[in-house]
Amino acid sequence: MTDLKLFRLDDEGRDVEMRGSTAPLERDLQRRIEAGMEAMLGIRFLASEYPTGPWHRGRVDSLGLDENGTPVVIEYKKASHAGVVSQAVSYLSWLKSARHEFHALVKERLGDDAAESIDWRTPRVVCIASDFYQHDRIAVRELGKRIDLVRYRLFDGGLLSLLLVESVSGSAEPVSEPSLPDRGVLPSAGGGGRTVLATLYGAPSSLRALYDELHEVLTASGEVEVEAKLHYIAYRRMVNVACVQFRPAQSAIVVYLKLDPDSIDLEDGFTRDMRGVGHHGTGDLQVRITSAAALEKATPLIQRAFEAA
After folding, report:
1. Pick the residue with more confidence: 219 or 1?
2. What is the distance between the alpha carbons of residues 289 and 118, in angstroms, rounded to a whole number?
3. How far apart are CA 173 and CA 163, in angstroms?
4. Strand 240-247 vs strand 233-236: parallel, antiparallel, or unpaired?
5. Is the dihedral of CA 268, 270, 271, 272 positive or negative?
6. pLDDT (0 to 100) of residue 144
7. Which domains does the chain have, with CATH numbers?
């Protein structure tokens, strides 16, 4: 099923489909999503109607920084529109040429730490519309850019649905075996640290084999984008659902899940409430995996996190 259907119970206890509609004005849609952007999309809002200067001659509907530190251009169309993808990609071109300007904006709105953690490897485009033409969905696969197509619907009672219908990772650094860095040139994370991929590559074979099994569980739905960041590997749909780190000295893999710690019985040494505790990546529930048995026990929690995403 590629479209979202909502049903409500009528007075006789029968399910009646709720018919979705589009926003009366594009501006209404934009303002609502900007107000809830972090909760809806995992993107911190920076600016609205941001001017792109005399060469690009436009205004970016929304600018943001996602939970992985990636710059994001968001464009909206209240109905289907053949030009939304090309328009957004043109603004992505502007974004890449305006790094210093964007850095200053992030510093002003989100602070020094956010500005210094900007990841320019794969800036994102998010297009939000009531629907997309088939040639748009085909085109984004050929552009080589990181693009998400999100379909929206409005329903009675103030309900808003967002459905990710196409997601292309562009040139994001994959985490599969052939793409791991050469063992002789392991990258540094700065300050003497190592990147997550370097840590993984240098880990014992038993830990890497355990990660292979974990990766299969995390991608079991077949609708998961995997992105290697500096300090963690993100598994995401619309937002991060799981972030993975490696602790070779402890023979452990740590997974941070987007799951409410209050919804489970925490177990010392296995699960931990991370609310208010600083860590790389996102997710309020930490799950510590040290063996195949621990992974088996963690699998239902991982499934719950992805089902709720």
Report:
1. 219
2. 29
3. 25
4. antiparallel
5. positive
6. 78
7. 6-169 (3.40.1350.10), 177-308 (3.90.1150)
List, for residues 151-185, the tens digit of each pLDDT value: 999 998 889 999 988 888 775 444 443 334 333 33
User: E strands, 2-58, where?
Assistant: 6-9, 15-18, 43-51
In the chain, how many H helices and how many E strands? 10, 16
How far, in Å, are 261, 262, 263, 288, 308 from residue 266 at the CA level?
7, 8, 9, 12, 19
The pLDDT tens digits for 29-57 are 999 999 999 999 999 999 999 998 766 66
Place of tokens 């953690």: 117
Handedness of CA 89, 93, 94, 96 (dihedral sign): positive
> Which phi-psi region, left, alpha or beta, contains residue 34 (left: φ > 0; alpha: ψ -120 to 50)?
alpha
Instruction: Note the residue count of the chain.
Output: 309
**Cβ 95 vs Cβ 85: under 8 Å:** no
Can you read off the two tokens belonging to residue 191? 């300050």
Query: CA nearest 227: which of 70, 95, 72?
Result: 70
Q: Is 64 in contact with 106 (CB distance < 8 Å)?
A: no
Find the helix or strand (DSSP H, E) in which 294 lies. Answer: helix 292-308
Task: Render pLDDT for 232-261 as a digit per residue (tens, 0 to 9).
Answer: 999 998 899 999 999 999 999 999 999 999
Give this prediction's pTM.
0.74
Residue 114 CA to residue 205 CA, distance in Å, equals 35
Pair of tokens at residue 244: 């993975």
